[in-house]
C-alpha cells in the first residue's frame, strides 16, 4: 500500500506472511502515530502480497525451518529489487534467523525485538527483569534471552499454545518478580486489550514497533563489497584471474574471501579483430555484460582483458559502479615499484598496441613503452591466436618458443621490466618473476595479478580511495597506494635457452 511518493517520504517494505494480522496492526499504529505527530511524514509502505492459500501454507511452516527462511528471504529480495531502503519484520519467529537475512541483503531489516528491548531500557530504566509471553518454539530456542543479555536485562519467558491461558501466564510471570511484561508473539501482542490493567507495566509491542519504524533512523548495515568480473575474454584468462584473486586474499577460512560475481560471456566479439579493422564492435556486448554485473549487485567491475580496456570509456560513463582500469593500476605499480625505470617492454596484442592504452598510462607517469620488432610482434600474435596458441589451450611448444623470442628481442633493447600485457601470456610464465638471457635480465610484471591485488584490497577496505558505494569522481580509477603491492611469487631466473 503506497500512501504517498513524495520527497523525504518514509519508505519500507513489510513482510507479513503468517503474521499478517500483526502487520495490519503495525500499519494502523503507524498511520495513527503519523497523524498525531507534529511533523507529518509521507509514507510509502509496500506490503508483501500473500494469497489465502500461501497464508495458510505459511502458518504450517516450522519456525526457523528452511522453508520459512526461504519464503521470508524471497519477500525481502522482492522489496530489494523494487528499490526500497528498509524492511519491517513484524513476525517474531522470523527473528530466529534475522542475522542470516541481513547478511544476504543490502536492505536495512528493522529488528523488532531489539527495538522492544531498547524501548524497555528507555521507558523503564529501573526494570531489571522482563517477563515475555511468547510461543513454545521461541521459548525453547531462547530468542528473547539472547536479546535480553545484549540489553543487560534478565528474561523470563513462557510459551503459550493459545491465548486462553494468557492471563494465567501473566500472573505466573508477575509471581516470579518480573518488572515488565512483554508480549513476544503475534497472538499475545494482538490480545493485549483482553488483559486489562496488571500489577506491572505491559509493553504494547506492535505499537512500539510502529513508532520505531516511523521515527527511528534505519541505516543500511555495513556492506560487504562485491566484485563483478567480466569473464570469457578469454575464458582461460578469467580462470587465471580468479585464481589470483583467491591467492591474494588473506584468508583462514572460506568466509574470509571476498564476494565475486562472474558473468562468463565468451561470445563478446574479439577486441583485437575490431581494433585492427577485421571484426565486429565488442562495445555493446561488453556494456551488456557490465550492466548484468551491476544489476546483480556488483560494487566494482574488473575486466581481465587488456585489449577490452580500449572500449571502456563510453561504457563506464553509463554505469553506476566503477571499472578498475588495469592499465592505470599497473602503471601506478610500475612507477612505485621501479622508480628508476623509465623504459617498459610491452608484450601485447596488436589491438592493445594500436589502442595506445598502455602508452597513454605509462607516459602519464614518465615512462615509455618499448615494443618488439615487427617480425617479433607477429610471433607474439601467433603465440596468442595461432593454431597452437594460448587461446587454443596450449602453454608449451610453438607458443612458448614465439614468446621466448619476443622476450629476447626486448632484452636486446635493454629493457629492465617487461609487461605481460595480454591476460593469456601469464599462463606461459606461471611462476617466473624475472627472465635472464646472456647476462641481461628483466622483471616480468603480470597486470592480471596487479588487478587482482587491487580488487582484493578494494573489496576488503584496505586500499585508500573513494568508497565503492559512491560513484567515483574520476574514471579510470587510479591508486598510488600500489607501492605496497609486491609481485608475490618468489623471483627466480627463467633460463630461456
UniProtKB/TrEMBL annotation:
Keyword Mitochondrion recorded: no
GO molecular function: amino-acid racemase activity
Gene3D superfamilies the UniProt entry points to: 3.40.50.1860
UniProt keyword Transport, yes or no: no
SUPFAM superfamilies: Aspartate/glutamate racemase
Keywords: Isomerase
InterPro entries (UniProt xref): Asp/Glu/hydantoin_racemase, Asp/Glu_race, Asp/Glu_racemase_AS_1, Asp/Glu_racemase_AS_2, Asp_race
Superkingdom as given in the UniProt entry: Bacteria
One Pfam family it belongs to: Asp_Glu_race
PANTHER family cross-referenced by the UniProt entry: ASPARTATE-GLUTAMATE RACEMASE FAMILY, GLUTAMATE RACEMASE
Family: Belongs to the aspartate/glutamate racemases family.
Official protein name in the record: Aspartate racemase
Organism expressing this protein natively: Paraburkholderia largidicola
Higher taxonomy: Bacteria, Pseudomonadati, Pseudomonadota, Betaproteobacteria, Burkholderiales
Amino acid at each position: 500500500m503506497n500512501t504517498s511518493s513524495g520527497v523525504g517520504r518514509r519508505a519500507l517494505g513489510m513482510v507479513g506472511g503468517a503474521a499478517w494480522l500483526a502487520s495490519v496492526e503495525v500499519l494502523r499504529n503507524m498511520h495513527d502515530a503519523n497523524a498525531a505527530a507534529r511533523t507529518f511524514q509521507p509514507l510509502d509502505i509496500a506490503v508483501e502480497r500473500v494469497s489465502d492459500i500461501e497464508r495458510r501454507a505459511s502458518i504450517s511452516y516450522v519456525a526457523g525451518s528452511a522453508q520459512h527462511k526461504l519464503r521470508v528471504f524471497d519477500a525481502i529480495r522482492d522489496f530489494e529489487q523494487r528499490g526500497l531502503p528498509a524492511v519491517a519484520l513484524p513476525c517474531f519467529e522470523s527473528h530466529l534467523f534475522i542475522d542470516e537475512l541481513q547478511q544476504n541483503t543490502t536492505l536495512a531489516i528493522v529488528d523488532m525485538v531489539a527495538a522492544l528491548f531498547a524501548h524497555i531500557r528507555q521507558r523503564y530504566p529501573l526494570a531489571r527483569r522482563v517477563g515475555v509471553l511468547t510461543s513454545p518454539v521461541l521459548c525453547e530456542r531462547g530468542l528473547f534471552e539472547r536479546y535480553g543479555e545484549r540489553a543487560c536485562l534478565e528474561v523470563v519467558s513462557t510459551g503459550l499454545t493459545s491465548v486462553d491461558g494468557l492471563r494465567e501466564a501473566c500472573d505466573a510471570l508477575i509471581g516470579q518478580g518480573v518488572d515488565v511484561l512483554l508480549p513476544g508473539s503475534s497472538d499475545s501482542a494482538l490480545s493485549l486489550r483482553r488483559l486489562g490493567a496488571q500489577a506491572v507495566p505491559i509493553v504494547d509491542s506492535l505499537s512500539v514497533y510502529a513508532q520505531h519504524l516511523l521515527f527511528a533512523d534505519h541505516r543500511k548495515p555495513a556492506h560487504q563489497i562485491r566484485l563483478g568480473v567480466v569473464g570469457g575474454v578469454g575464458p582461460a584468462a578469467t580462470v587465471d584471474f580468479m585464481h589470483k584473486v583467491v591467492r591474494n586474499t588473506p584468508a583462514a577460512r572460506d568466509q574470509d574471501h571476498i564476494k565475486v560475481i562472474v558473468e562468463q560471456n565468451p561470445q563478446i566479439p574479439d577486441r583485437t579483430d575490431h581494433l585492427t579493422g577485421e571484426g565486429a564492435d565488442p562495445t555493446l556486448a561488453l556494456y551488456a555484460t557490465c550492466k548484468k554485473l551491476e544489476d546483480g549487485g556488483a560494487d566494482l567491475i574488473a575486466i581481465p582483458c587488456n585489449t577490452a580496456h580500449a572500449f571502456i570509456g563510453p561504457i563506464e560513463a553509463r554505469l553506476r559502479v566503477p571499472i578498475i582500469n588495469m592499465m592505470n593500476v599497473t602503471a601506478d605499480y610500475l612507477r612505485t615499484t621501479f622508480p628508476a625505470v623509465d623504459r617498459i617492454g610491452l608484450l601485447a596484442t596488436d589491438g592493445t598496441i594500436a589502442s595506445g592504452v598502455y602508452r597513454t598510462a605509462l607516459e602519464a607517469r614518465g615512462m615509455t613503452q618499448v615494443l618488439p620488432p615487427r617480425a617479433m610482434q607477429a610471433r607474439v600474435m601467433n603465440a596468442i591466436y595461432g593454431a597452437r596458441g594460448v587461446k587454443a589451450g596450449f602453454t608449451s611448444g610453438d607458443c612458448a618458443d614465439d614468446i621466448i623470442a619476443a622476450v629476447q628481442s626486448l632484452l636486446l633493447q635493454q629493457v629492465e621490466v617487461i609487461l605481460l600485457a595480454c591476460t593469456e601470456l601469464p599462463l606461459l610464465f606461471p611462476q617466473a618473476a624475472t627472465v635472464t638471457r646472456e647476462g641481461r635480465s628483466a622483471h616480468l610484471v603480470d597486470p592480471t595479478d596487479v588487478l587482482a591485488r587491487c580488487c582484493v584490497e578494494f573489496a576488503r577496505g584496505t586500499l585508500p580511495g573513494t568508497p565503492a558505494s559512491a560513484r567515483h569522481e574520476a574514471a579510470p580509477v587510479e591508486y598510488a597506494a600500489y607501492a605496497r603491492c609486491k609481485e608475490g611469487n618468489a623471483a627466480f631466473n627463467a633460463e630461456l635457452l
